[in-house]
Structure formats: C-alpha cells, structure tokens
Amino acid sequence: MKKVLVDVQGGGMTTNEALRLADVDPLVFTQRAHAGQLSGAAALDIVMPVAVLAAGIAVAIAGLPVVGTVLIAVALVLLTATVWLLGRTGRTLGAVTVDIRFVRRSTGAAAGPGALLALVGGALGAYDLRRGRDPFAPAIAAFAFPDDGGGALASVRPRRGMVPTLALDSGERLSLDTALVLGRDPVAPADAPAQVYRWADMSRTLSKSHVRLEWDGRQVWVTDLGSTNGTLVRGAGASTPLLAHQRTPVPGTVTLEIGDRVLTIREAGH
Q1: Sign of the C-alpha dihedral, residues 139, 30, 231, 219?
Q2: Exposure of 194 by Cβ count < 10 A (0-12 exposed, 13-18 middle, 19+ buried)?
Q3: pTM of the prediction?
Q4: How far apart are CA 82 and CA 138, in angstroms?
Q5: 130 pLDDT exceeds 80?
Q6: Residue 214 exposed, middle or buried by CB count within 10 Å (0-12, 13-18, 19+)
Q7: Close Cβ partners of 19 (under 8 Å, ≥ 6 residues apart)
Q8: Which among 209, 208, 239, 203 is positioned nearest to 223, based on CA atoms?
Q9: Element (H, E) at 18
Q10: 2, 26, 21: which is closest to 250 by C-alpha?
C-alpha cells in the first residue's frame, strides 16, 4: 500500500513507496564544540576521576587501605555516572560545565547503552549549546493543531471497529478513537484537546507529557511533545528518532520506543 511522506518544506503531503520519518536534518543550525570546550569536558569527566582513582591506589599501597578504598569507590562512581549520563542525555558533568551536548552524528539523539563504544568509535559529535541549536530542541516550528470541531480530525470520523489500538509493554490495550496524550502525568492544552493516559513508569524515562497520538480515519500521526528522552520509531535495522513537536505519519502497524517503554500501534483488524 502507499505510505504518506511529509513535505517539511511546503507543508504538504505526497505519496511514496518508502516512508521517510522526520525528513529534516536533526543537526540543522547546530554548531560543533571547539577544542577548548572538549578539553574542559575531558578534564572533569576523565582526568579528575582517573586522578582520584590513582590517588586511592597510591594511598592504599601507602598503608591507608580504608581511605584508599573510599577514593577508589568515589572514582568508580564518577566514571560510571559519566558513562550513564553520556548515554542518556549526552550531558555529563563536564559537558554541562562547558555547555555542550554529545549526540550521535547520524541521528542527533543520545548515544544510548552503547555510549562508550560510540564515543571511542567516533560516532558521537559534541555540539556547542551557546552558539547553536541544541540537537534535542525542535528543528522546525511546532505543528499547529486544528481547532476542536473544525479541522481535519473532525472532518474524517473513524468508522466503528476500524480504529487502531495501542498495545503497551505493561499489558494495557488502548483504543485510538480520539487524540491521546501519553506520559507519566500528562495534560492536554486547551488549543489541542485530547484524552490523556497516565502510564506508570518507575524508570522515570517518560516525560510528564511525552507523546501525542492521533488517528484521522486513514492515518496514524505521532508527535513527540519535547520529551527528555525522545520518541523513536523502531525499524528493521535501527530506530529512527522523531523531531520534537513535528507531527509525523507512521505506518499502520509500528512499534514506538518512548524512553525505556515500548508501545505497538496495531491497524484495525490486526
């Protein structure tokens, strides 16, 4: 079947055999970090913990094992926290201090669990948040939702029994018979009315209002609401991150990664 392609330049839609998600350069208007910023981040994230580790080993050898053990533990905690923050947000202690963010060059997203390998392999880039756009910020203007009762969503009413369903990884099943905002504690603004679903998330990787899903009678649309950890469309090879606030069409049956949670949109009848 034909699939919808968003024309981000003209705002229209065309059809194409291959769906192209978030057809915008995720690193548009960003600026690469300069050498001084990288040196400052490395000094705090690598040199300082390694120095503490070396001091702990030296103190332990010198005959103060308790003090040495404490210093070694502090160093390991600092290094572990650095790798975790690099993968989750690209904003380590050093990166925050010099105001940069580390993201994948190919997607503009945080590195995820493979952060250390991505960094060593050169897959990550550092971007200056003072001079350019934050890769996590919207690359285009926010989509203006239609007025309640007067827009495209109101003009096409889904037929009974033909509404897609959402299968959450926690076991819940939701019907997408109206626009839905999903998150830890979601709210729908007055100018974009929707039902809300509070999804319990002990990992706290969901934002309060994380993602908006809509069904217009023919097409499912997904909008990441500027979430901290992003919304990704799972593909055969890799997951594709959606740009924040960009209303994006997705295939009828597709899996979304929302923070650490997963939901599957299923076509009516599946």
Answers
A1: positive
A2: buried
A3: 0.48
A4: 26
A5: yes
A6: buried
A7: 3, 4, 5, 249, 250, 251
A8: 209
A9: none
A10: 21
Q: Measured between alpha carbons, how far apart are the two ends of the chain, in Å?
A: 16
Per residue in 7-65, pLDDT (tens digit) is 333 333 333 334 444 455 678 778 899 999 999 999 999 999 999 999 999 999 999 99
Which residue type is seen at 22? Answer: A
Please count the residues of the chain: 270
| Alpha carbon distances (Å) from 28 to 42, 135, 140 | 25, 8, 10
186 falls in which pLDDT band (50, 70, 90)? Answer: very high
> The tokens 């994006």 sit on which residue?
248
Q: Is the predicted pLDDT of residue 157 greater than 50, yes or no?
A: no
Query: Given a cut of 90, is residue 101 above it in pLDDT?
Result: yes
